[in-house]
Amino acid sequence: MVGSAIYRKLIASGYTNIIGRSSAELDLRFQDQVISFFERERPAYVFLAAAKVGGILANNQYRAEFLYDNLMIEANVIHASFLTGVEKLLFLGSSCIYPKHAPQPLKEESLLTGLLEETNEPYAIAKIAGIKLCEAYRSQYGCNFISAMPTNLYGPNDNYDLQGSHVLPALIRKFHEAKKKGSSEVVMWGSGTPLREFMHVDDLADASLFLMQHYNEAGFINVGSGDEISILELAQMIKKIVGYEGAITHDSSKPDGTPRKLMDNTRLTQLGWKSTITLEDGIRSVYAQLANEEWY
Ligand code: GFB
Question: Is the CB of 234 under 6 A from ligand 1?
């Protein structure tokens, strides 16, 4: 989802010499493949968006894969970028790097000040390692490697698998299917009280290009929309957009995860970037483009 959004953004901005690979073509978990790819293609600028990602349940169930795959991807790409003299690299992390009870909105200084949310600790540890790799390669070797931490994302090419996905695509699918089948209720996980901030992936792609062009510092940067909403309110918004008229019920056997996750965007806004896609507009545009999904 993120890689293809950055690709679209680069094309729309007039860039032509863009190298992209799917995971089927290049498995970034294997160092030999990564180093020979970098030696052959010699990219000058690298957007490191590749990652093993998923929602709260997938993070919790596939703990080994979320840690191992992400560590390998980051270590291989960052090291190969150093070896082949990449001019600049942008590493993308996640808002889950922050301690579960860090003060809100989350400031960059809160990194490593407390315990992580248990359900996504392996993913968070891998993403923290990515930040630290960029910082270490900058301080030891002088590499211009920067990091950005996006908030919860959604958009074209999202994952709609109900076990593995994040809440926003999961609820779009659940409400749409319930409407089609005439079901009387849609079951959402957890209490609905956790607060989340969502951002359309096209906004992240825009911010990524902006940072690639304008930011050259050691410290990582939060990238958020500033839109915070409870999971229940999100469900009600999606229900309205889809046009479903039944009830919303809760499955309290599923975890809530971190209670609140709102980014402090001060650093990014001071640099001159701001998100432009509102949550309601973003969900409407995503919902309008789903006709090709096999479940639709
Ligand atoms: O989006 P989500 O899976 O991930 O869940 P996190 C957010 C909230 O929505 C949780 C609730 O409180 C879920 O219990 N929820 C309600 C649902 N209904 C559903 C549903 O049908 N599916 C899903 N998936 N959730 C992930 C992290 O955390 O966010 C990752 O595990 C990463 O590491 C990612 O940071 C951005 O926001 O809780």
Answer: no
User: How many domains, in total, are found in the chain?
Assistant: 1
Over residues 39-74, the pLDDT tens digits come to 999 999 999 999 999 999 999 999 999 999 999 999
Catalytic: which of 15, 68, 123, 244?
123
Q: Helices 201-214 and 2-12 meet at what angle, rounded to 10?
A: 60
Residue 201 maps to a domain: yes
H or E element at residue 180 = helix 167-181
Q: Which two tokens stand for residue 283?
A: 């969900």
**What pTM was estimated for this model as a whole?**
0.97
Minimal CA–CA distance to 46: which of 13, 16, 14, 6?
A: 6
Would residue 123 show up in a list of annotated catalytic residues for this protein? yes
Residue 48 covered by a domain? yes
User: At 238, which CATH number?
Assistant: 3.40.50.720
Is the Cβ atom of 123 under 6 angstroms away from ligand 1?
yes
Q: What is the number of the ligand 1 atom nearest to the C-alpha of 58?
A: 31
Q: Give the pLDDT mean for 121-125.
A: 98
Residue 221 has pLDDT above 90, yes or no: yes
Would you tell me the crossing angle of helices 279-288 and 167-181 to the nearest 10 degrees? 50
Task: Find the domain containing 154 and state its range.
Answer: 2-290
220 Cβ closer than 6 Å to some ligand 1 atom: no
The reply to whether 296 falls in a domain is no
pLDDT digits (tens, 9 = 90+) for 226-279: 989 999 999 999 999 999 999 999 999 999 999 999 999 999 999 999 999 999
Give the residue from 161, 147, 211, 187 showing the smallest Cα distance to 1.
Answer: 161
- Give, for ligand 1, the residue of 1, 57, 151, 166 to mutate: max count of ligand atoms closer than 8 Å to Cβ: 166
Confirm or reject: Cβ of 94 under 6 Å from ligand 1: yes
In a domain, 142, yes or no: yes
